[in-house]
Amino acid sequence: MSTAREGAPASWEVFLRARRGLAHQHVGSVRAAGPDAALAAARDLYTRRGEPLSLWVVRSDALHTASPDERDPYFAGARHKPYRYPEHYAPLTEKGPEGEHHE
């Protein structure tokens, strides 16, 4: 993998998991020559408060992403599949005009 400029430190994306059960969150970026240096820089910059459970760094050029501008197929709803939406289903029981239950 090459960097933007030959000899320049690579850009690394930083992901942090603050508490047990929570997903990792993207918290920012650092520049570093390698993964160990990137972890050290990320620790110094992003873990000042609290004690995170986990810290990840991923080279920016190794990420494959989809932009919200690319609505289909990543972000568009599935309106052609109405069974995925709760409004597609009728309630199991409804009260009639005199209070009896209908199914």
TrEMBL record:
Keywords: Oxidoreductase. InterPro entries: PaaB, PaaB_sf. The keyword Oxidoreductase applies. Its EC number is 1.14.13.149. It comes from Streptomyces tendae. This is 1,2-phenylacetyl-CoA epoxidase subunit B. It holds the Pfam family PaaB. GO terms for molecular function: phenylacetyl-CoA 1,2-epoxidase activity.
